[in-house]
Amino acid sequence: MTYGRAAIPALAGGLLLTAFLWWAGASAQALHLPGTTGVIGGQAAAELERWLVPWSYEPPAALPLGAEVSGGIGDTAGAGAGSTRYVALYATGMQIRFGAVFAFFVPVALLLIRRLPPVHGRMPATLLAVWAWGLVAGTLAVTVSSPWLIAAQGHGSYRFLPQLAGVISSGRQVLVATALVAAAVTVLAARITAKGAGRLPQNIVPARAARLAATAGTAVIALSLVVLSYQPVAAALQTVSPDGGLFAEPGDLLRQWLLLGAWAGPAGAPLGSWLLYRAADVLLLVVVWWTLRRLPSLLTRASIPAMAAGAVCATVLGLLASQLLGVATDGAAFRWGMLQPFAGIAGGIPAALTFGLAAGVVAAVTLRVAVGRAETAVATASGRGSA
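The chain above was modelled as a monomer; its predicted structure follows.
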C-alpha cells in the first residue's frame, strides 16, 4: 500500500481523535449543570470530571491569582497581569497538547496502515493496532505539554518530576473510548483507499523463526513485568533521588516509564487468591507473545520500525486485557460505583512504549538472524543434494 493511499485515513483518524478529545474536554462543564448529579450521581459526576478536565480548555480554579484579568473592583494591575500570564500558559499548554495528539498519531498510523493494510483478514489486527497507538499518542501529547500546565500552577520549580508524573497519568481513561472510535474510522477509510491497490505482498516467515522472535521480544516485556515490577525492586526505583535541583526525586516518573505492574509474594494471602491476581500478568505476556508470533506474517514487510510499532501496540493491548481481567476478578471492584473500577484503566502506557520499542527491535533482529540461518541451511542442503 502506497504512502499516498495510507495518508488519507491516517490524517482523517488524527483529525477525528483530536476533535473527539477537544469535545470531551469541552463536555466537562456540562457536569456542573443543574440536575446532572441527580441523574448519574455525585460520585460518578466527580469521577467523570476528573477524567475529562485534562482535555478541557477551561482553566482550573486552582490557577494562581484567579482567572480574572485586571480591571475588576479590588483588583490590582499586578494581580491582573499575573493572572493573565498564568491563564496564557495554561492555554498554550492545551494548544500544544491537542497539536501533539495529531502530530504523534499520524506518522505511526501511516506506518501501520501501510505495513498492516486492512485487507485479506488483517482488518481486526489493523483496528487493534491503530487503537493502541491512539492511546500512546494521547499519552505522549500529555507528556510534552505537561511543563506548560505545571508552570501555569505557579510552582513549576517545586518537585518538578513528581508533578510531571502526576500530570502524565491524567486523562488516559478518555483516550480508551476516543481512540477506539478514531481507529474504527481510520481503518474503514483505509479499507476503502486500499481497493484497487493491487495484490499486496504476503510476508512468509518460517514458524520456528517467528516463535523465536516472539519469545525474545516477550522476554524484554517480562523484564519490566516480572523483574522491575517486583515490589522490592520497584521500591528501590521509587527512592532514587539525586541531590537537589529541578530533577530531584525522579522515582514517580521512573515507575511510570519502567514498570508495567506491581507484585509481591503471597505473604499473608491465600495462594489461590495470589495466583488469581497473577493471572492478569500471565495474560499480558500471552497477548504479547501471540501477537509477536503472528505479526511478521501479517506485515507486508517485517521492517524494524514496523515491528517496533507493532510490539508497542501489542504491549498496550496486553495491558488493557490484563487490567480488564483484574477488574473482573476483583470482587469488591464495584463497591464504590460503576466508574471507580475503571479509574486505573490504560495505566502503564509509558512503560509499554519504552519496553515495547525495545521488544520490537529485539524481535525484528532475532527474526532476521533466524530467517537468515534457515535460508542458509536450506541452501546448504540443496547444494549437497545437487552434488
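The two ends are 42 Å apart (CA to CA).
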